[in-house]
Amino acid sequence: MVAFLFGAAVVVLIFGYMLWPKDEEITSTGPVIVKNTNAAVSGNANGNLNLNQNSNTNANANNNTNANSNTNTATDLTAGWKTYTNTTFGYSIKYPSDWKANESTGTLKADNVGFQSPTTVGDSDWGIFVFDRQKKTIEQVIASIGSQFSDRKESRKTVTFNGITATEVTVTTKQYNNWDSLSLVFEKNRKVYHITNGAVANTKFTDFYSTFTFTQH
């Protein structure tokens, strides 16, 4: 009887030992799970970090590109030109450095200055006339431009430069294909100002009259 009980106890111990999980199985399984979890978290964190870094880099690149594209590289076409100053009527204007300014007083009921290129003999190319408004109004000045032509054709538009609002007047005639008058007419302090291209087209004339400014108010 005793031998039977002892044998049964041995069998129970052996069977229980077989069912009980081994320490090495627990330790080998645990770290694998934890390690994989850490790897997943680390991978997501790195992924987000890289994404943000790339986004910031792209944003900076775009900002730099926009900044560069918005940089103005405009050239001053009158750089190096001379400056003519009229202290009587308080204005100044730039003209090409190889031209000369010729002042005249009292002609055509006006005080005027002519600007002459080195290739022009006699007359001036461009001119500025100043009339007393009581002697000649803006409309009278405009009407006198090309009045010698029976087929005179006139067009007008308003332009603004250096705080001055002027009437830009173009007058043409079919009698002379190269007669192309461009004038700026405006008024200040009871004086009428007339800037003219001398009826000869010149691409520099716009740069010329755009530098006209009053030095006295």
- How is the largest sheet built, in terms of strand order? 3-4-5-9-8-7-6
Q: Give the uncertain stretches in residue-range form.
A: 2-6, 23-55
Q: Classify the beta-strand content into a percent band.
A: 25-35%
The CATH superfamily of the largest domain appears as Mog1/PsbP, alpha/beta/alpha sandwich
Overall structural class, as computed from helix and strand content, comes to alpha+beta
SSE order, one letter for each helix or strand? HHEEEEEHEEEEHE
How many beta-strand segments? 10
Please describe the biggest sheet, giving its number of strands, its sense, and whether it closes into a barrel.
7 strands, antiparallel
Number of domains: 2
Q: Helix content range of the residues, please?
A: 25-40%
The CATH topology annotation of the largest domain reads as Protein Transport Mog1p, Chain A
Compute the separation of the termini in Å.
136 Å
Specify the CATH architecture of the largest domain. Answer: 3-Layer(aba) Sandwich
